[in-house]
Design brief:
Elements: H1 5-31, H2 38-48, H3 60-69, H4 80-97, H5 104-120, H6 124-138, E1 152-153, H7 167-170, E2 175-177, E3 180-183, H8 187-196, E4 201-205, E5 214-217, E6 235-239, H9 242-253, E7 258-259
Parallel strand pairs: 5-7
Antiparallel strand pairs: 1-7, 2-3, 3-6, 4-5, 4-6
Length: 273
């Protein structure tokens, strides 16, 4: 029986809770030393406030809440980008708990970010499970035509692009910084570059990260179809690292960009067509 999009997200949250729970236990035990566990402390607080919630370590929403409300306990383990993942998945988990609908792009994004967060928590086995779940989802035909897909927030991967000698001279207004290449008012140069570097990613955004920025695969037709590409309000930011593009966005807006619902960029390569 084929899973619904909500069920895909639910399975990802189950894996996330299983991977985060022991790690959160260790970090919070060092942060809140004493005879009571962090869970017992939270239950006691809730009861003093007149609430009797069902709190459990198997609830991904609770684990994410603990991380977000106690960031000092996770210093040295979670970067600013990792904490953005926590906020993002906490929102996804709340949507899931309230039975909201998820698009295919939403599911791909959620599973991808879950895997990233699990790797940050050193939960390698569960991160592999999340990657395998994402691979399985990517093999399922979309519920609707690509043009009707809903964009979802996006991120990922590792290596920054190698430096290219003379890049600034060759591409005019393009400039390099922190593993990214920015194209401003250079449509022809942008098109030439992206045609020659199809394995990377491109962020379509306003100059300061505004204007509903969207992250694409460099091979996505939507970012090289209709001019102007870099000469109007929007610029293009290229990298072969999704992490680098996320950090570019975070440094300007304190949030990550949406992902293209058509090309669905993720940490894993696209499935063969």
């Amino acid at each position: 029986m084929e899973l619904s999009n909500r069920e895909w997200v639910g399975r990802g949250l189950e894996i996330l809770a299983r991977g985060l729970a022991p790690w959160v236990d260790r970090r919070m035990a060092a942060f809140w030393p004493g005879s009571k566990t962090w869970l017992q402390v939270m239950i006691d607080r809730a009861r003093r406030d007149g609430r009797w919630p069902m709190l459990t370590r198997s609830d991904a929403r609770l684990l994410l809440r603990v991380i977000e409300e106690n960031p000092k306990a996770f210093l040295g383990s979670l970067s600013k980008l990792d904490l953005a993942y926590v906020r993002e998945i906490r929102e996804v988990a709340n949507r899931w708990a309230h039975f909201e609908a998820f698009s295919d792009a939403d599911v791909t994004r959620a599973l991808d970010t879950i895997a990233r967060l699990l790797r940050a928590a050193r939960a390698a086995g569960e991160a592999t499970e999340a990657d395998e779940l994402l691979t399985g989802k990517k093999r399922v035909p979309p519920d609707a035509a690509p043009g009707n897909s809903t964009d979802a927030t996006g991120v990922i991967t590792h290596q920054a692009p190698p430096a290219t000698p003379g890049l600034g001279d060759q591409f005019g207004e393009a400039k390099t910084s922190a593993g990214v290449l920015e194209f401003r008012k250079r449509d022809a140069d942008y098109l030439a570059w992206v045609k020659a570097h199809r394995d990377g990613w491109v962020l379509n955004t306003g100059p300061r990260g505004g204007g509903n920025p969207v992250l694409h695969r460099a091979a996505c037709a939507t970012i090289s179809r209709t001019p102007p590409f870099t000469s109007g309000y929007y610029i293009k930011v290229y990298s072969n690292s999704l992490d680098a593009l996320d950090r570019w966005m975070l440094s300007r807006t304190d949030s990550t960009a949406q992902r293209c619902g058509l090309c669905r960029p993720s940490a894993l390569p696209p499935e063969p067509r």
